[in-house]
Protein: Aromatic ring-hydroxylating dioxygenase subunit alpha
Amino acid sequence: MISQEMNDRLTRTGPGSDAGAVMRRYWQPAALSDELAVPRPVVPVRLLGEDLVLFRDDSGALGLIGRACPHRGADLCYGRLEDNGLRCPFHGWHFDRTGQCVEQPGEPEGARMHERIRTASYPVVEKNGIVWAYMGPGDPPPFPDFDCFRAPDSHVFAFKGLWACNWLQAMEVGIDPAHASFLHRFLQDEDPADSYGKQFRDTAGATDIPMTRLLRDYPRPDITVEDTDYGLRLIALRHLDDGRTHVRVTNQIFPQAISIPMSREMIITQWHVPIDDERCYWYSMFTSFTGPVDKQKMRDQRLREHRLPDYAPLRNSANGYGFDPVEQARETYTGMGLDINVHDQWAVESPGPIFDRTREHLGKTDVAIIRYRRMLRAAMDAVTAGTETDLPMRGGAAQAAAIRGPISNDTIAASGGDWHAAYTAGDAERRAACTDWDASIATAAKTG
Ligand code: FES
Ligand SMILES: [Fe+2]
Structure:
């Protein structure tokens, strides 16, 4: 457990907050590219407690500017998308994508007041289905050479979902390898052939053991946490009765992402992005090492569970997450259906919008959570002290280019075998078989 003061420091992300200052030193997912694929590409964005509007201008370039008109505060999300910018419908002030006011049509002819009017604006780039924003000082850092950024757009599917809780609760479920044996337990095994686009439904490693059975039968993982250039590597070992060991490698990517295996074909890289302190979006990039991703199928699967335009889940606290006691007795551990996202959503929302961590009791399996909070505290201290190059991945282009992977996979190590060698070999095999794009990480073995 931690003090109330520390809980506030770790969880608050609005302007002027310490954790928010750390997040502002990294590119943040602001919207899905899908959200802009409409006739009028103007989307409200609330990010790190700031209200913004994202739009694509006539030249095709993206702008992310303050949502309130600097004149008298009207909502620019209702702006007229015209003349290569956004025009406020109240008095016609016109803004370009840098936030500069370029015209005030109601002011006297020749007035130059507009030259002094500039609203907030942040750099944005689009990468593999996500629009990223940089809200910090100075130049944005380069993107690390992670698989989700190296793979071509055809091999990456991006989606998001709304959770009604603080981002740190969402982050912490992703670095908790023990919960998969309980929260996501299926009392029956599905046919792994029907596993496309779903997590924990494939077989484990190169075996015919369904992941569902393995997680159910071996609920006490040995968890090791290692420091890396990008954050933390988590290794969860499940020792099987026949002497073999199941090795699951997942990662924390600083400051608020995880990278985990989904199936033998795909990995998931997922950001937990504060909308404000009591709501967050998960943004996932599903990256395929085999063929192109079936985006239509994956989108349809997820749209059945979410409402547009805000990507709010249809199962939520207002309807008890669809809880069914008969299902809980017979089919799933939660009684909340087969979509593991709903299980995670219940786990992170039910402690309350900002969990009171003065009341928690962390166990041995929470080791990565403890290590992560320590890392975040060090980063907040570094930003406060002005030593920002101490932050993970803020060391420049060469450093970012050297950060590859990270390895996220499930492997089975032979009886008496070296589990480190087993997961490294399992990952190398998958990368070697990836001929559609260059997934090699040979030059970055240290960090992968
Ligand atoms: S409030 Fe926007 S132009 Fe007046
Ligand atoms: Fe989970």
